[in-house]
Design goal:
six-stranded antiparallel beta sheet
Length: about 550
């Protein structure tokens, strides 16, 4: 046995076992996320249940599990009874979205053909039978089959009107509001800097006349929006739920209507693609529990790019100095120990540092020097995507420094000496020989830092991330990139929807799908960096990375 331990074979087995357990855990996590997230895109069958007490309910089966033994009488404890969790929707009618039903309470179960799922902008899904299509309160189409054949045409028309309203509000009215706000800031600037009251009065009057013109244009656009809203509110549907309770829903509040019980497999595939498209490119709704996550995707990717632009130059320069220029001694060893220890500091500490240094000190100084007329409302002295990116750059800096130092150390000493022997200066050797050869290793550090930055949430919560950002950090208004704006982030989106939502059960599919999306984005960013690294590895074969 002693010889067996000394041979080291057991440690090979232990290492392999550790790797296998890690792979199983990662695979299990991915399977859990995929199995729970797919229901967000796939149209589930609607079942209608008649209970033994006469109540009728309809909805989607979310899960099925054994009835807790404590809830059963002694005579039924060995019967292995099951219960189902039913998503009944219709929150505005019932006051809840989900209910549990024991098998013993089910008298009859069916899958009606014309029962529909109505996705709404508010109050979640409505499950029921659409009896009539109304235009200005008058019945235009009646009968479930006729409604089924015609409702898509009406919904498409109302959807076009709603899109036109959204375009006007976002582009035209948003542009006018932006110009008015800039003009008001110009007035503040004149009042702050101009000492001649006569001159300032004339300038302010000119600006006020521009504001008045824009206000008239704003009212004109509002009139157009109001008239379009009147058109959209003309259309509605009369619907009854499984128990016979009725409700009239305006079509302008409906996102889509579908009949999952009569959809073919190909129709379900098409439906899933439309939901995926909505998830990736639309804005969130219903307190982020429905709709898309495009603002969060944009904020996450832009923050990672800004972080990479900040961390690579400073990290590489620091490692280059430590390895190539600094005189090796106690001080350099101390700096290396400090850098390594910095990697173990809790991320929230970096967030507090970012809040104090970047936002209060740097941002506050910028406000006092360049935007004093806007104070006390801060411009840069508040959370934003730039400060969050720089905070994460500090957080991931040790990773880049250590990886770059290792890459520089791996370059054979003979390469340096040969270049110096040919008459090259120290800087020429570094720039033309050492740095290109170390690039694959530098990219290794960048990959690791990107993966960590994309998943960090704690420092962002106090440096610029918000639950719902009204505007993206990039738009069509000068200066186009608004680095002072707050932003949405996929990691914070998961935390907010999963743990801060008033309806956590309804939000769980969104949590799983957003988690899967965040993993895919990290993998995509890493693959891009790995492809670049592989190409550079072929080019500089002296590198060991």
């Amino acid at each position: 046995m002693k010889k067996y331990f000394q041979s080291g074979d057991i440690f090979i087995w232990l290492a392999g076992m550790g790797l296998g357990i890690s792979l199983i855990m990662i695979s299990g996590l991915l399977v859990l996320i995929l199995s729970n997230g797919k229901d967000f895109f796939w149209p589930s069958e609607i079942i209608q249940i008649k209970r033994t007490d006469g109540r009728i309910q309809a909805g989607e089966i979310i899960t099925r599990e054994p009835v807790p033994i404590l809830n059963l009488p002694d005579s039924l404890k060995n019967k292995n009874l099951q219960r189902i969790q039913l998503k009944v929707g219709n929150r505005d009618l019932y006051g809840f979205d989900f209910t549990w039903i024991d098998e013993r309470e089910i008298n009859q179960q069916s899958s009606p053909e014309y029962i529909s799922t109505i996705e709404r902008l508010e109050f979640g899904n409505f499950y029921g039978y659409i009896k009539q299509i109304l235009v200005e309160g008058e019945i235009k189409v009646s009968g479930e089959q006729n409604v089924h054949q015609n409702i898509e045409r009406y919904l498409e028309y109302v959807s076009d009107v709603r899109s036109e309203i959204a375009d006007i509000e976002k582009s035209d009215i948003g542009g006018i509001n932006s110009k008015i706000e800039n003009l008001r800031l110009d007035i503040k600037k004149i009042l702050y800097y101009e000492k001649d009251p006569t001159k300032s009065k004339a300038q302010i009057e000119n600006i006020n006349s521009e504001i008045e013109y824009l206000n008239r244009e704003y009212l004109h656009q509002r009139d157009i929006v109001d008239s379009l809203n009147l058109v959209a509110t003309r259309y509605s549907v009369y619907i009854e739920d499984a128990s016979g309770s009725s409700k009239t829903i305006p079509m302008k509040d409906i996102v889509r209507v579908y009949y999952p019980n009569e959809m073919a497999f190909t129709s379900k595939i098409g439906f899933a693609f439309s939901k995926i498209s909505e998830f990736l490119f639309d804005e969130p709704r219903e307190s982020n529990t429905e709709g898309g996550v495009f603002p969060a995707i944009f904020g996450t990717v832009m923050m990672v790019i800004l972080m990479s632009l900040a961390v690579v130059p400073f990290g590489v320069l620091a490692a280059l100095y430590l390895r190539e220029y600094a005189k090796q001694g106690a001080m350099v060893r101390l700096v290396r120990i400090a850098v390594n220890n910095l990697a173990g500091v809790p991320s929230i500490v970096f967030g507090v540092f970012g809040l104090g240094f970047f936002i209060y000190f740097v941002g506050g100084t910028i406000d006092q020097l360049f935007f004093p007329e806007r104070l006390p409302s801060p411009t840069w002295g508040t959370g934003g995507i730039l400060w969050a990116s720089l905070t994460l750059a500090l957080l991931t800096m040790p990773v880049v420094i250590v990886a770059t130092e290792e890459a520089l150390a791996s370059i054979p000493r003979g390469v340096r000496e040969a270049a110096l022997a040919l008459g090259a200066t120290k800087w020429q050797v570094v720039r033309r020989v050492i740095l290109p050869a170390a690039t694959p290793g530098i990219l290794t550090g960048l990959i690791l830092s990107m993966a960590r930055a994309a998943g960090e949430v704690a420092p962002l919560m106090i440096t610029g991330v918000v639950k719902l950002a009204p505007s993206l950090p990039f738009d069509s208004y000068f200066p186009f990139f608004h680095l002072d704006r707050k932003f949405m982030h996929l990691g914070f989106h998961i935390y907010d929807v999963g743990f801060q939502s008033p309806n956590v059960e309804a939000a769980m599919p969104m949590v799983y799908t957003t988690t899967l999306l965040l993993i895919l984005i990290v993998i995509l960013l890493n693959i891009s960096a790995m492809i670049i690294r592989a190409n550079l590895r072929k080019k500089y074969k002296t590198s060991t990375f």
